[in-house]
Design goal:
mainly alpha, two-stranded antiparallel ribbon
């Protein structure tokens, strides 16, 4: 993306870096959303909300987080809710994808700098086929969200009347984008904790959005080639897809088992349910903690063991190049594989009989380190400026950094300082790891550079 200015009759080309474009793009969307949400027409009461609440809501929407200081269902008018929905869709698809889609819709060609940015943002192997890739991502997103909305209507319309149609559309987009915002009421989806339709559709949308667009297209490719190649389809998946799918499956199964065990007799969550409904609620909790933000059980009612487990799952998040947040499943898998290789005294990090590039390991460590630093600073800042319980404050900080949106009930009691802390945390948590990953992709090591001498140190 180039900006051209004239000075003394000469043209000067100034190029923004990929990371700057991403960060400024998200910031521009947040500012535009804040302005619109600060208008009286956006408020359900007809009176403009406080600017800090408009900023907080715009940020949580664009960053697809889900933490709210004002209840979405009652504080905002239909216009305000529509603005929030558009911001969620932009944040879920990503600024780069939306921009590319607008350019294509206007029948304009993407310039080389824009194509390079798209290539790095989605980690594509080449510049070829980008238009088709963007079309598939956008078309697939709208198709899945549309199907989700139609199925939602079978549950929400009987329960809510005509308003259930809007709730179905809003929830479908929010769930696919892993935003966690809803227009149901004060208690998220707690009233539908044992509703199989709401549970199934929400979990399916969250998983499909969070698994990543690259995995989507890779799975479709494998099944299209099935007739021509009789080899096991799973073996023909890319290494990225294998890691993302296997890590997701492990987390879903492990999370369901742990939440079921820890909450089995808890009267504040699932203790009074039948075994089937307990299993259903435990599975939902396992899914939603990985950056979705919807709640079917009160988070402040969780046992300490479940709350700590939820912190880990929130920090991990979904998979890369999707709508989810967190440090990502593939990132954690790569770090664990590198640690295992080190324990086994192997020189290479391997997974599924493939070597992982050292640069990928470094990138994974950098993303985790950055996310941990943001979480730590945010947690300390909240504790230093409030009287919140330690676990509650850390829960908010992790939820904001990983753009999850689950809360133990303290977000509504935020003062101005706490709102600004979490607003900054949500923004950094969303754009930080993405920008860092793109920066690593763009940066190439200079093999001819003079290297510093090596010296052994003690570790551990």
């Amino acid at each position: 993306m180039y900006y051209i200015t004239e000075k003394k009759g000469e043209k000067m080309n100034k190029r923004l870096s990929a990371t700057q474009i991403i960060m400024l793009g998200f910031l521009a969307a947040i500012i535009a959303g804040t302005v619109l949400l600060a208008l009286p027409v956006s408020s359900a009461s007809g009176k403009a909300v406080a600017l800090e609440d408009a900023l907080f809501t715009a940020t949580t929407s664009v960053c697809v987080t889900g933490l709210v200081t004002l209840t979405t269902a009652s504080a905002w008018s239909v216009f305000g809710q529509a603005v929030i929905l558009v911001l969620i869709q932009i944040g879920g698809l990503g600024i780069i994808t939306v921009t590319a889609g607008v350019v294509m819709a206007a029948n304009r060609k993407m310039r080389l700098p824009d194509r390079l940015l798209l290539q790095e943002a989605f980690n594509l192997n080449s510049l070829a086929g980008q238009r088709q890739f963007v079309k598939k991502v956008i078309a697939g997103t709208f198709a899945v969200e549309g199907a989700g909305a139609l199925i939602y209507m079978t549950a929400f319309v009987p329960a809510m009347g005509a308003r259930g149609i809007w709730a179905s559309v809003f929830n479908s987009v929010s769930a696919f984008c892993n935003a966690g915002l809803d227009v149901i009421g004060e208690d998220s989806l707690c009233d539908f904790v044992v509703n199989p339709v709401v549970n199934f559709v929400t979990c399916a949308l969250i998983i499909l959005g969070g698994i990543g667009f690259i995995v989507w297209l890779d799975v479709l490719r494998v099944f299209r080639e099935k007739r021509e190649n009789r080899q096991n389809p799973l073996k023909r998946l890319s290494l990225h897809s294998k890691i993302a799918l296997s890590a997701t499956a492990v987390l879903l199964v492990a999370g369901t088992a742990l939440f079921l065990i820890f909450e089995y007799d808890n009267p504040y969550t699932i203790g009074a349910f039948s075994f089937t409904h307990k299993l259903e609620a435990a599975f939902f909790q396992s899914v939603t903690t990985r950056t979705a933000g919807f709640a079917t059980v009160p988070q402040n009612g969780l046992t300490p063991a479940s709350a700590v487990t939820a912190l880990l799952f929130m920090f991990i998040g979904g998979s890369p190049v999707g709508t989810a947040g967190g440090v990502k499943t593939v990132t954690i898998a790569v770090i664990l594989a590198a640690a295992l290789s080190s324990v086994r005294s192997k020189n290479e990090t391997t997974m599924f009989r493939r070597s992982i590039a050292p640069a990928a390991v470094k990138r994974a460590l950098a993303v985790v380190a950055m996310s941990f630093a943001i979480t730590f600073v945010s947690s300390v800042a909240l504790l230093a400026t409030s009287s919140f319980d330690t676990l509650d404050a850390i829960y908010e900080a992790v939820s904001a950094t990983a753009t999850v949106g689950l809360s133990r009930g303290v977000t509504g009691s935020f003062g101005t300082v706490q709102k600004l802390i979490i607003t900054a945390t949500m923004y950094l948590g969303r754009v930080g790891p993405i920008s860092l990953a793109v920066a690593f992709n763009l940066r190439r090591e200079n093999k001819n550079a003079v290297k510093d001498p090596t010296e052994e140190i003690s570790v551990g």
